[in-house]
Design goal:
Strand order of the largest sheet: 1-2-3-4-5-6
Number of strands: 6
Order of helices and strands: EEEEEEH
Strand content: 35-45%
Distance between the termini: 18 Å
Radius of gyration: 13 Å
Shape: globular
Helix content: 10-25%
Number of domains: 1
Length: 90
């Protein structure tokens, strides 16, 4: 599952995808998981390889307005790393 390919070949160091999970590299290490959305709902579940922490978030607002998107990202980052930082899933 951890054999991945770049989701965007133009950005080979960006988000990578394997057999059902994504690998997202960020300052806290590699996050493994998956996210998804459908009109009115979004979810993400990631595990951080370095910290061993897991974050699962769901929102009943999609697409989320910018005022809500940033706090959701910060919440995931805080859970995965134990300190505030920016986290992007794609």
């Amino acid at each position: 599952m951890k054999t991945t390919v770049a989701e965007d070949p133009a950005h080979p160091n960006g988000t990578r995808y394997g057999l059902g999970i994504e690998r997202v590299q960020d300052p806290c290490g590699a996050d493994w998981g998956h996210g998804g959305e459908i009109l009115g709902y979004q979810v993400m579940a990631y595990w951080n390889e370095r910290t061993g922490r897991t974050a699962v978030l769901a929102s009943t607002v999609f697409p989320a307005p910018a005022a809500l998107a940033a706090p959701l990202e910060r919440a995931a980052a805080y859970v995965l790393c134990g300190s505030p930082r920016e986290h992007t899933t794609g």
